[in-house]
From TrEMBL:
It comes from the Bacteria. GO terms for biological process: alpha-amino acid metabolic process. CDD domains: AAT_like. Its cofactor is pyridoxal 5'-phosphate. GO terms for molecular function: pyridoxal phosphate binding; valine-pyruvate transaminase activity. It comes from Marinobacter mobilis. This is Valine-pyruvate aminotransferase apoenzyme. Pfam families: Aminotran_1_2. Residues 31-375 form the Aminotransferase class I/classII large domain. The keyword Hydrolase does not apply. The lineage of its organism: Bacteria, Pseudomonadati, Pseudomonadota, Gammaproteobacteria, Pseudomonadales. InterPro entries: Aminotransferase_I/II_large, Class-I_PLP-dep_aminotransf, PyrdxlP-dep_Trfase, PyrdxlP-dep_Trfase_major. Keywords: Aminotransferase, Pyridoxal phosphate, Pyruvate, Transferase.
Amino acid sequence: MVMMGGGNPGHIPQVQERFSEILHELAIDQAAVRRLVGIYDPPQGEKQFISALTDMLNQEYGWGLKPENIALTNGSQAAFFMLFNMFGGDYGDGSRKHILLPMAPEYIGYADAGIAPELFKAVRPDITFTDAHEFKYRVDFDAVEVTAETGAICVSRPTNPTGNVVTDEELARLEVLARAHDVPLIVDGAYGTPFPSLLFVDATPHWNEQIVLCLSLSKLGLPAARTGIVIAAEPIIEALASVNAIMNLATGSFGAMVAEPLVRSGEILSLSRDVVCPFYKGKMERAVSEFSAAMGEHCRWYVHKPEGAMFLWLWFPGLPVSSLELYQRLKARGVLVVSGHYFFPGLPDDGWRHRNECLRVTYSQDDEQVAKGLRIIADEVKTIWAEA
Ligand code: PLP
C-alpha cells in the first residue's frame, strides 16, 4: 500500500541528528534525567521551555509576551479540543455559541471536537484560477458573518488539507472582525510560522492579545512527543492550565525538554527556515511535476496552489464518480489517500458539487512511493473518464 493518507511528518536526517545529540546530552546529565522523567510539570507546562520561548519570541518579534501568555498541551490537537469547548458550545446564560471557520475546507481533526452538537459554522471560499491547472481558495469576506452566537474564529495557516496560506491581508481582516465582535481569532500554526515553517510563500508571524496562536512541535519532527503550544492572553492561558490539570494533571515534559536548547539559541527558527522548509518544498515541487506529467492535458484537473503544509489538494471537476468512490478505487489499487468530502466540517449540505470532487494527497513520505502513488491516481482518473 502506498500511504498518502496520513499527516505524519517526513524524517529529516539533519533534524533527527540534532534530536539525537540533545537526547544524548540529556541522558548523561542526572539532573536532566530527573526533570525529563521523574517530575510532574505544572499544568501550564514545562517552565524552562516556556521561559525560553517567551524570551525568543520577544527578541525576534517584539510581541511583549510574559510566561503567563504561554501554555503547553499534550499535542496541539488537545489544545483545539479545549479551546473550541471553552469558546463554543453552551454558556452559563443559556446561549449556545459556534466556532466560525471562515474558509472551508478545513482540518478534519476539528470535526468531532465539539461536546455540544453542530459546533462549527463554515463558509465556502472564493475560487480563483492561478494557472492552467492550479487554483487558490480565498476568504469570501462577503459571506463571512460574525454574530452574537460566534464564540471564536479559527483558521489553519497553512491549511490542512489544501496547502493554502491565508495571506497577511486576509489575516488582518479576520482580526478586525474578531476585534469588532470581541471574540478570539484562533490561528492554527501546526505547519506555520514562526516554526516549523512548512511555508513556500511569505507569511508574517503575528500575535497580539486578540489572537490565540497554536503551535506544535510535531511537524518539526517530534509528533510522538505530543507537544502543543498555545500563545494567548493571560486569562485564556489560566483557563487552559486549569483544563490541563483536570484532563492530564500535568503535560508531558519530553518534547519541551528536547526542544528547549533549540528555542533558547533560536536554532529552532534557522532549522525550520533552512532545513525543514526546503525539505518539504522540494517534495512538493517533485510531487507537482510528477502529477502534471502523469495527467497531461487528458482531462480537467487542478491542484490547489501548494503554498505550505505537506499535501496536494487535487480537484477533478465533473468527474463521473465521487471523491469517496475514487478513494475506494485507489485503495483497491494499493494507494491510500483521503477523500476531500471529510474536510468541510460546519458547511451545510447545500449540494455543492466541489466538496465531492477533491482528494487530499500527502507527499511527506518517500519520493519514489509518492511518485508511484501519483501516477496511479492519474491513471485511475483517466480510466474513469474513459469509462464514462
Ligand atoms: N492542526 C492541523 C492543521 C494539523 O494538521 C494537525 C495534525 O496533523 C494538528 C493541528 C494537530 O497536531 P499535533 O496534535 O500533533 O500538534
